[in-house]
Amino acid sequence: MPSMIGIPGLILILLIALLLFGPKKLPALGRATGQTLKNFREAVTGKDDEKEKEKEPATKV
């Protein structure tokens, strides 16, 4: 459970990530993670389908 980690656990996770990826790659990693979560959330909620409908031109029948 994420609520059970606490502040010391989060600090430890951040230190390990800093050691593994280095200070130059952490911002890019955070950006990529955020973009992935945003895309996943849009796919789950169906917002992506609404965007596709708006982009499609109206066809005449």
TrEMBL record:
One of its GO terms (molecular function) is protein transmembrane transporter activity. GO terms for cellular component: TAT protein transport complex. Its main location: membrane. Coiled coil: none annotated. The keyword Nucleotide-binding does not apply. InterPro entries: TatA/B/E, TatA/E. GO terms for biological process: protein transport by the Tat complex. It holds the Pfam family TatA_B_E. Keywords: Cell membrane, Membrane, Protein transport, Translocation, Transmembrane, Transmembrane helix, Transport. It is found in: Cell membrane. It is a single-pass membrane protein. PANTHER family: SEC-INDEPENDENT PROTEIN TRANSLOCASE PROTEIN TATA. Belongs to the TatA/E family. Forms a complex with TatC. Part of the twin-arginine translocation (Tat) system that transports large folded proteins containing a characteristic twin-arginine motif in their signal peptide across membranes. TatA could form the protein-conducting channel of the Tat system. This is Sec-independent protein translocase protein TatA. It comes from Polycladospora coralii. The gene is tatA.
